[in-house]
Structures are given as structure tokens and as C-alpha cells.
Write a structure and sequence with these properties.
mainly alpha, 452 residues
């Protein structure tokens, strides 16, 4: 494989080389959950009920894993800027601190969420019928919390050194394990939702082992090392500061999906279980749209951060424009697929004709504005890559606030299913605001660039 030069390679093919493996990695990462749901939805007799249970548990698992984003996307751009500025020792300090933070977070979150899982599930919409399945799935899934937090967090430090292909290989290998183990544990060993969760945990452990192998490789610009960190407090604060915006995007997505289930449960009346099951399917496709979209923009973050640190302003502007173009192309393709083939896509998750009809209809509504969503993602990630938290954080929070207001208001005024319109409303308004702000502020940011 040809060596990547973030400072000199042609930008159009370079952005593709960086973004495509990262997008594939993110898409495959979603397959952990999607493969589980595909198999679970087809379990005899309990499939529909078990699928609704996993739908309720899924936002909680996403919330837990989002802490890897806080450290991964918080520290990796700083590391890349240090490398671009020729400060290799300081870059190594950032990566070592990130490792220690990921370990600490894993130790805290694993027991915390495990013992609070039943109250959380009950609060966020689990019913008497599906609580047992949701608790079993979530409990076993949480056993693997250290694996997924470390693997996902550290992969960002590969990607921001231009090694997105290696991060992709780790995720692809783990997914193959999950695809093979899921039917074995669910159907052959008759373990139902418990088997799906255990298969996922094993697969995440495989991903971590491969990621650690690659990130310690001598062919990297900066291999991971266990070292004493200079000024650990200052570095930790910077990591949390820069990681807060992407963390809020992922964490609040999980919380808002939980709120969606809650509103469907509260106002859905006799159709509540059907709506929640449809929501579980819709959330799977939404993750399949969002994660690769985030992968495209995150894959180019290292390029932007490195050249910002090196003072190459024109390369930063062109790189941001190309990343945004690729994000729009991808989201346009996904929009066409969903609008044309939603009826067939939902059948991957359920054999229930009624559930499939609900899911297909509401999937089209929920994803109505995914093309504008590409602008929101690329703008916020570019701000993050340039260490402009004062812009990325309000933009992230603003879009979530719009979603929150819509999801709390629409079902009260209309019917429960009006909650599905909250996403396209937030996507459209967020895109308009973030695009206007990014391209008006970028020249000023580059003119007053300062070392961080």
C-alpha cells in the first residue's frame, strides 16, 4: 500500500483514500446492531417482541459507546495538528493520555450501566412484555463495554494518521465474526437475544485485538506507546473540550431516540408496540445512513487538522469543500435507495407484514432530509478538526434542540406518529444554519490561525 502524505498528495484522490475506508468502517460498525436485529426479528414466536426490546436497549448501548467518541475525536485532531507542526513528542503525549482516559471510562461505565440497566430500560419505554428480553440483551452487551470503547476510540488515532484502511480491516474482521456467531448462538444453541449479545461482545474483543496490533506498528508516523505524559491535566482538558461536540452528537442521538420510543409508547395507545418495533427498524437504517456519513467527514479530519497545524490554509479550504462534496454524493445515493426500496429493506428485519408496512412508510418520512444532513455533518466535523469548539458545539446542540422541541410538540398536537417528522425538520434547519456559519467564518479562522 502506497504511503499517504497528508501535506502533498493530490486532494481529490487523497480524500477518497481517507474517507472511503472510514465510511466502510462506520457502516460495518452499524452491522453489529443490524445483524443482531435481522436474526432476532426472525426468531420463532418471540421475534417481533424481542426486536422491540432490542430497539429500546439499542440507544442505551449507543450512549455507552459514544464515550469513545469523546476521547477518540477529541484527541485525534490535536495529535494530527501536533504532527503537522512537527511536535512529535507532544503528539505522543496526546495519544498516550487518550489510552489512559479510555481505560478509565471503561472501568467506570461498565458496572454503572450494568446495575442501572433495568431502571433505565423502564424509564425509556420498556413494557412488561419486552422488559425481560431488553434486560438480558443489554446486560450481556455491557460486559463488552471496555472492548468497544477502546477499539472505537483508538481507531481514530489510526485514521488521523492516514491509516483509515487499517481501522477498516479491524472492523470488517470483527463483523465477520459477528455474522458467523449470531446464528450459531441464537438458533443452534437456542440462546435467543442473549446469544446475539454474546456474539457481539466476542466480535468487539476481536476488533480491539486487531486495532492494538495496528496502532503499535512501527510503520506509523506515531505508534502508540505507554509513556508518562507531560502536563496530563492540560492535555485531558483539551481532549474533553475538542471531543465534546462529536460526543454530544452521538450521545444526544441516543437520548433522543430513547425519547422517540417514549413518545411513541405514551401516545401510541393500541399501536404503541407496533410503532416502537417500526422505530427499531428505522433507527437501524438511520444509523446505517449516519455512521458512514460521519465516516466520510471524520476520515478527512486528519487531513484538515494536519494542514491547519502546518499552516497550509488553501489546502484546508479545498479539503473541506471536497469532503462536503463526497458527503452530499453519499447521502443523495442513500436517499434514492431508501425512497425506492424501503419496502424490501424492512423485510430484512421482520416477517410480520403489518410491522413491515409501518416501518416502510415511516422510514421514508424520517429520512426525508438526509441530503441536507450531509452539510450539517461536514460543517461540524470541519469545525472540530480546526479546534473551533465555539462553533461546533452550539451547532450540535442547536440541531438537537430543534429535534427535541419537535418531538415533544408534534405528538401532542397531532398523533404519536407525527414524532417521526422531528428528524427531517432538524436536518433541514441545521444544514442551513451550519453551512452559512462555516463558509462565512472559515476565512477568518484561517487568517488568525494560532498554535494550540
Amino acid at each position: 500500500m502506497a504511503k499517504i502524505d497528508l501535506e502533498k498528495d493530490n486532494l481529490i484522490p487523497l480524500c477518497l483514500r481517507l474517507s472511503i475506508p472510514t465510511a466502510i468502517s462506520q457502516a460495518v460498525q452499524v452491522l453489529y446492531a443490524i445483524v443482531d436485529r435481522m436474526y432476532i426479528g426472525h426468531i420463532d414466536q418471540i421475534g417481533t417482541l424481542a426486536l422491540s426490546a432490542v430497539g429500546i436497549a439499542s440507544p442505551i448501548t449507543s450512549l455507552v459507546s459514544s464515550f469513545s467518541v469523546l476521547i477518540g475525536l477529541g484527541g485525534a485532531p490535536i495529535m494530527a495538528m501536533r504532527l503537522g507542526g512537527g511536535e512529535k513528542d507532544k503528539a505522543a503525549d496526546v495519544m498516550s493520555m487518550a489510552l489512559y482516559l479510555l481505560i478509565a471510562i471503561s472501568i467506570i461505565l461498565t458496572p454503572l450501566f450494568f446495575f442501572l440497566r433495568n431502571p433505565l430500560l423502564s424509564f425509556f419505554g420498556a413494557t412488561e412484555a419486552n422488559m425481560a428480553y431488553a434486560s438480558t440483551y443489554l446486560g450481556w452487551y455491557l460486559v463488552g463495554t471496555p472492548f468497544i470503547i477502546l477499539a472505537s476510540g483508538l481507531s481514530n488515532y489510526l485514521i488521523n494518521q492516514g491509516q483509515s484502511r487499517k481501522a477498516m480491516i479491524a472492523v470488517l474482521t470483527a463483523t465477520v465474526f459477528n455474522v458467523v456467531l449470531d446464528p450459531l448462538f441464537i438458533f443452534v444453541f437456542n440462546m435467543d437475544v442473549k446469544g446475539a449479545a454474546i456474539a457481539t461482545v466476542i466480535s468487539q474483543a476481536v476488533q480491539l485485538i486487531i486495532t492494538l496490533h495496528y496502532i503499535r506498528g512501527k510503520d506509523l508516523m506515531l505508534p502508540l506507546s505507554l509513556k508518562k505524559v507531560n502536563m496530563p491535566g492540560a492535555i485531558m482538558i483539551k481532549i474533553f473540550k475538542f471531543g465534546l461536540s462529536p460526543f454530544i452528537i452521538i450521545a444526544t442521538d441516543s437520548l433522543l431516540m430513547i425519547l422517540l420510543n417514549t413518545m411513541l409508547s405514551r401516545y401510541g395507545k393500541a399501536d404503541a408496540d407496533l410503532l416502537i418495533t417500526a422505530s427499531a427498524i428505522i433507527q437501524s437504517f438511520h444509523l446505517l445512513v449516519m455512521n458512514p456519513l460521519g465516516g466520510i467527514t471524520a476520515g478527512c479530519q486528519g487531513l484538515l487538522s494536519y494542514n491547519y497545524g502546518a499552516g497550509n490554509s488553501e489546502r484546508v479550504k479545498k479539503g473541506a469543500a471536497i469532503a462536503q462534496l463526497y458527503a452530499v454524493i453519499y447521502s443523495s445515493l442513500m436517499f434514492a435507495i431508501i425512497m425506492l426500496f424501503s419496502d424490501s429493506l424492512v423485510l430484512l428485519f421482520t416477517s410480520d407484514v403489518t410491522v413491515a408496512a409501518y416501518a416502510s412508510h415511516y422510514l421514508k418520512l424520517f429520512e426525508l432530509m438526509i441530503i441536507p444532513l450531509a452539510f450539517q455533518y461536514s460543517n461540524v466535523d470541519a469545525f472540530t478538526a480546526l479546534a473551533e469548539v465555539r462553533f461546533s458545539l452550539p451547532l450540535s446542540l442547536g440541531r438537537k434542540l430543534i429535534f427535541l422541541i419537535a418531538i415533544l410538540t408534534l405528538p401532542r398536537i397531532f398523533t404519536a406518529d407525527a414524532a417521526f417528522f422531528a428528524e427531517p425538520i432538524a436536518d433541514l434547519l441545521g444544514a442551513i444554519i451550519s453551512t452559512t456559519l462555516f463558509w462565512s467564518q472559515l476565512p477568518r479562522i484561517l487568517r488568525r490561525r494560532k498554535r494550540i
